[in-house]
Design a protein that fits this description.
With 125 residues, the protein is mainly beta. The chain is built from 2 helices and 12 strands, in the order E-E-E-H-E-E-E-E-E-E-H-E-E-E. It is globular, with a radius of gyration of 15 Å.
C-alpha cells in the first residue's frame, strides 16, 4: 500500500487480463460500518483486487460528457476488452485520454467497478 502524505493509504493495483476480469464473479466489502466501505473483486486466480492495472490497445474512444469532457474507451488485450471510464475527479487522465490516438498501447490503473454488460465486464475509474 502507498501513502500519499495525507495519511490515506492507497491499495496496490493488481495486474489483470480482460478475460480474468470478465470471469470474476465474486465480490467482497470491508469496513461495512465506514462511510465508504472498500469493495473488492475476487478473480478466478484468487487475487483480491480493490484497484487493478491493465495494459492493452485503445480501439475506441468517445466523449460522453454533456457539460464538460468525459471520455469512455475500449482497451483490448489478447484475452478480451476492457471498458474504461476515467472518473470525473481525474481531469488530467481525461485530458490524456482525449489526446490518445486509436491503436495506441496504454497502461492504466484504477479502482474497479464491476458492472455487467452483454459484451463483458466494465471497469469504471
Amino acid at each position: 500500500m502507498a501513502e500519499n502524505g495525507s495519511g490515506y493509504v492507497r491499495e496496490v493495483a493488481h495486474r489483470v487480463f480482460a478475460a480474468e476480469l470478465k470471469e470474476s464473479n465474486l465480490q467482497s466489502k470491508e469496513g461495512q460500518d465506514e462511510q465508504y466501505p472498500k469493495q473488492y473483486l475476487i478473480t478466478p486466480t484468487g487475487a483480491k483486487c480493490n484497484r487493478i492495472f491493465i495494459v492493452g490497445t485503445l480501439i475506441e474512444k468517445e466523449d460522453v460528457g454533456t457539460d464538460s469532457e468525459f471520455w469512455r474507451g475500449h482497451i483490448v488485450d489478447p484475452t478480451g476488452t476492457f471498458y474504461v471510464t476515467p472518473g470525473s475527479t481525474i481531469q488530467k487522465q481525461c485530458r490524456y485520454s482525449q489526446k490518445q490516438c486509436l491503436l495506441s498501447s496504454l497502461q492504466s490503473s484504477g479502482s474497479q467497478r464491476s458492472l455487467r454488460r452483454k459484451k463483458g465486464m466494465s471497469l469504471h475509474r
